[in-house]
Amino acid sequence: YESGKGWFPLITETLVEWQQSAYGTSPTDRDSTVVESASDKRKRLLQQQRKRSVSPSEPSRAAKGLRTDTNSASGSLRNKSASNKSIYIQGLPHDVTVDELATAFSKYGIIMEDFATKEPKIKLYRHDDGTLKGDALITYFKPESVSLAITLMDDAPLRLADNSTRIRVSEAQFSKPSIVGPSGSSEPSAKRVVDPKKKKRTMQQLEKKLEWFETDEAEVSDKYRRIVILKHMFTPAELEKDPTLLLDLKEDIRQECEKLGVATNVKLFDTSPDGVVSVKFSEKASATACVELMNGRWFGGRRVSAELYDGRSRYGASQPRETEEETQERLEKFAQWLEQQDDNSP
């Protein structure tokens, strides 16, 4: 916590490599030393999985009681692992929702839909009294998504910058007649009769979604990899209290970010409750390094969140246009502030 709202660098191994590579190497070499963005990593891992049908490695800390495929001599087990489309999640916060899980895990592939309800196939396990146990089952449309989700989400926080929401993600292991988890949770696998036409239509829709997903990932990855979104940089109340903070904050952020490369635009969304600032760089490598540098740092008593822009979120002002009375009141406050500055001057 820094009461003076100063910048305190958070040195990471990636940042050190990036800075070292700035001397004596070509731009191509420098780019290769920068850590991949999450979007790039998802894309690379997905391509690797499609080229070779290798079963994902088991998480290093397998939960006690969870059945795993440890018998390397069994070809049938390996085949089952390679075609597995479901992941098992542990350690979920007890206020988690299906929508939250769908948002978090749909980044790694298309989530399968229930043929009858059209809802995503996400199962939250509950105690007899209806409270959540903290584990869940998610089924994807393609098995490649399983390895991707495990690689990027296992032992990672479900909610950014909240380490208490760190979760464990592994392949789901099924047994007849139920799925078995470390907490002893199981659900009977009662099969329902599904209309073949409805099933075919749903599968066709999912195939179309998959095409859109892959196209969107490629386009978003290429177009927005130069834009960084910083959150929790200010509060609207702070900007209202000090009219000059907006300009000062933008300049401070620009100076800090230009240590990593040319920042072509810094935009502060003054009405954002999350205190959002966007920084656009001229080079993708600079944006990636900025995420590594800024994410998790403390500024003004708040923990900063930094990520590459996803191409979809909107942070623009949502306030209605000012009335004449509101404009006059704002100008009077600014005039009073200027007078106070003159009185305090030597």
UniProtKB/TrEMBL annotation:
Basic residues bias: start-end ranges: 41-53
Span list, region Disordered: 22-79, 176-198
Leader peptide range in chain numbering: none
A single GO BP: mRNA splicing, via spliceosome
PROSITE patterns xref list: RRM (PS50102)
Keyword vocabulary terms for this entry: mRNA processing, mRNA splicing, Repeat, RNA-binding
Pfam families: RRM_1
Entry GO terms, CC: U2 snRNP; U2-type spliceosomal complex
InterPro entries from the UniProt entry: Nucleotide-bd_a/b_plait_sf, RBD_domain_sf, RRM_dom, TatSF1-like, TatSF1-like_RRM1
SUPFAM superfamilies: RNA-binding domain, RBD
Biased composition (Polar residues): 68-79
Residues of the RRM domain: 85-174
GO molecular function, one term: RNA binding
Family to which this protein belongs: Belongs to the HTATSF1 family.
Name of the protein in its database record: RRM domain-containing protein
Organism expressing this protein natively: Dispira parvispora
